Amino acid sequence: MTACIVGWAHTPFGKHENDDTESLIAQVATQAVADAGLDPSDIDEIVLGSFGEGFSPQGFPASLVLQASDAFRFKPATRVENACATGSAAIHQGLKTIAAKQGRFVLVVGVEKMTGLPGPEIGANLLKASYIKEEGNIEGGFAGVFGQIAAQYFQRHGDQSDALAQIAAKNHHNGAVNPLAQMQKDLGFEFCRNPSDKNPYVAGPLKRTDCSLVSDGAAALVLTDVDTALGMDKAIAFRAAVHVNDYLPLSKRDILLFEGCEVAWKQAFDKARVSLEDLSFVETHDCFTIAELIEYEAMGLTERGQGARAAMEGWTRKDGKLPVNPSGGLKSKGHPIGATGVSMHVMASMQLTNTAGEMQLRAPKLAGIFNMGGAAVANYVSILEPLR
């Protein structure tokens, strides 16, 4: 164990018409520090995760965190970015500070304000997380990239529309009881399975219910070392925190394998000295339902090409053998790019402290988290457990 999460905060995800990046940051920064039982003056370093890329007119956002409290003034603050895994990248930066003994308490904030732009601009910004030289003209933006992945998967392994609809329905069912989720509605399998005016095809075989939402929101957490955490009210320890990157161009790899995801999980299991069977639940990066399906295979839940079994046989439901996305995932909770990785760690920490309300699983002991940037390019896996 290298560090612990000792406090957190999370705005509702959705459309925040009266908030900008700055106000979203301020809400969670002060709340997370207070939740840890600390004063802003106790924080030694601030790391902000924000994808940016045209979503906010304000560049250079690191010092916006200082607006939350005068006591943050003159603290080191840095903005990091790693596409849709930006939140996890910010956490890793904080973990390195703790490991290097360069600070005792690190505040990590993830944020994105996405809904202030017209749809085409949002799509153009998101497409920047792909390899523009080869993939910049794909129709449908980033959804188009995953539409192509889904079409290739169907070609290799057969039509998986039923499985994708099961994944969407599961995550909407879970998100219906998450008060922080953008879409708190249990849509059901039939709605997710059948194209309709309210659920049209978006890209390739992917329908609207297969795609995560455009969201505003922020999440934050406080990190400290294990010795310090032992004396605090709550402490969630990192058994493992792994980061691997793969090639950016889809043309340089078999995109149906999510090999970076597979390597990250294997390294995390080795470091934590556990296996997939030891996990109580997983929060995984379901930016599109096809991604969650392939991630089942990459984490070792099923054989290659058989991810549909986990969805169709109920393995990943809350009452299944490995609940996946009890929070509702990106599909239901929302996906404000820079906030997502931090949100996943907050949701897992809530489960492990039995403070997840109606989302709560029965006595979870060990959490797995997978957060990715791009199409399995930046891959982060965390394994978390209560310190005591």
TrEMBL record:
Gene3D superfamilies: 3.40.47.10. CDD domains: SCP-x_thiolase. This is Acetyl-CoA acetyltransferase. InterPro entries: Thiolase, Thiolase-like, Thiolase_C_2, Thiolase_N. NCBIfam families: PRK07516.1. Residues 250-385 form the Thiolase C-terminal domain. It comes from Aquibaculum arenosum. Residues 4-182 form the Thiolase N-terminal domain. It comes from the Bacteria. SUPFAM superfamilies: Thiolase-like. Pfam families: Thiolase_C_1 (PF22691), Thiolase_N (PF00108).
